[in-house]
Amino acid sequence: MHRERAGFAASNVTVRITRSFRFDSHRIHSNYGADCSCGVVRAASSQCPRFKPCSSPTTTSFSRSRSKVTTGRFRARHYLWLRGDVTAGHTAPKSQKLKQHVPKAIIFDCDGVLVESEELHRITYNETFLSEGLSHIQWSQDYYEVLQNKIGGGKEKYWYHFDKDGWPSAEQCGFDTSSHSGREAFVQHLHAVKSLRYAERIQKDETISLRPGVGEIIDAAHTRGIRLAICSASNRESVHAVLQRILGAQPHAAPKSDSRLDKFEFIIAGDSVPRKKPDPMIYQVAMERLGLGPSDCLVIEDSAIGLRAALGAGIRCVITYTWYTRSQSFDGATAVFGELQGVSLEDILDAVTVSSR
């Protein structure tokens, strides 16, 4: 995978986004800062006191807060490198610009696009295993990255894992996993417990918020008369818990009826369709509800699975990847952004226009 350290050039414009990530056992922290002398993105000390400037051109040091970090579960994978294939807005002179392609509807994925929640999902899966007496099963960040990039949906992740690594015995889990019906009941039980835990965490975790830059894109699209919808592979309970948290509160100084969640016409969750992403069904259903064709829609996704679902439905797809999906191939995407902070709706529409030439 080709990577660049501090910036990239595309369509005669240079985009510079610096971001650092820190993972601990309960939270995801993201801060914006400056480039360190070694070429690795670091957080500004005023924003992130746990990070220190590099002490040498090739090493980066950081300190841990004992009150927040659990020894052994902390992974120092906090640098999100920019990929060289990130597409920026086209900046040709106005006289050379084509007529901008403006879709009639934009369909957003939830996890990874509206909110960075993948690590919280992983933690909740592991807590569910512990509470169900399966302490020997703990999904690492590396393994969950594989699951996240390969399997769409929570129940499907359980099936994939147990089919590959073996099903627990009835003595271990309380279900007859020697039969298909017993395995289905076991997966349903795990899924229900995990969903409840996740919804509870969403309400308590102060780090859960709308991904930077996304709110401005939603507001601009709504003002411009572009219809909005959400299609997520997660189950209905998890999706609604997240959306109420990040979109349900009204914007500053706005009446309650003007909450961002009210700007979306509908939400389709993963358990609302029989086939999940990368199958295109969820986007086909969305187009039916919108009464629009593929050329009138635009999808914003964060993963190759979501990209395949959008392309399978014939819809253009813009990617904004996360730490968990940064290494994926996004062949076929209309544009790829490492972050939406500082990216406007006009940038996205210009990228769609340029790619359609």
TrEMBL record:
InterPro entries, per the entry: CbbY-like, HAD-like_sf, HAD-SF_hydro_IA, HAD_sf, PGP-like_dom2
SUPFAM superfamilies named in the record: HAD-like (SSF56784)
Pfam families in UniProt: Hydrolase
Source taxon at top rank: Eukaryota
GO molecular function (one): hydrolase activity
Stated name of the protein: Uncharacterized protein
Organism name: Cyanidiococcus yangmingshanensis
